């Protein structure tokens, strides 16, 4: 039979354990708030200004992997959900993790490789393997022009047509997105209430 002293010790240990778990969860939430930054309201690339439409975070196994933001030309007000690319669009991705995979992630490979030449894909892979936490990737597209790819505001390549941009957007906001939560965030214009 456990004495009242023993019961008190067990209750205190359970209480301390639960308080410890609660404090750990609070720490994770607060730390997450410090690591995630808001996407800038505007970006400028090669003299063209882009206005933030929406942004969201790609989370995998409780880790924030990257922040994805969609920018439209300042004159455009809405994102076409059918991905017809009749208007200028830019995608900004900020890397949030320090441990990047040793391979190009499957969704990226499946979106990018079929749309560009083998030579460009080889260059893309080399650039991706150099990425570190907080690096910025930007893809831009103007109707009738190429899709351009930048890392930290330095242009890495240009691919003719809209195929690459369409494939990238489909990865995030198409019928089978990599994350439903990210898709919802990206289709929700900033400033609107859910």
Summed up, what is this model?
The protein contains five helices and seven strands. By secondary structure, it is α+β, with helices and mostly antiparallel strands.
Report on this structure.
The relative contact order is 0.14. By secondary structure, the chain is of the alpha+beta class. The protein is elongated, with a radius of gyration of 22 Å. Helix 2 packs antiparallel against helix 4. The protein has 5 helices and 7 strands. A 7-stranded antiparallel sheet has the order 1-2-3-4-5-6-7.
Rg from alpha-carbon coordinates: 22 Å
> What is the beta-strand fraction?
25-35%
- Average of pLDDT: 83
Sheet/helix structural class? alpha+beta
Sum up the overall morphology in one term.
Answer: elongated
Give start-end ranges of low-pLDDT stretches: 22-36
Strand order of the largest sheet: 1-2-3-4-5-6-7
Helix content: 25-40%
What is the count of β-strands?
Answer: 7
**Individual helix count:** 5
Order of helices and strands: HEEEEHHEEEHH
Largest sheet: 7 strands, antiparallel
Distance between the termini: 56 Å
SSE topology sketch:
Elements: H1 4-35, E1 42-45, E2 48-60, E3 63-73, E4 89-95, H2 106-112, H3 118-129, E5 136-141, E6 147-151, E7 154-159, H4 163-173, H5 180-187
Antiparallel strand pairs: 1-2, 2-3, 3-4, 4-5, 5-6, 6-7
Helix pairs in contact: 2-4
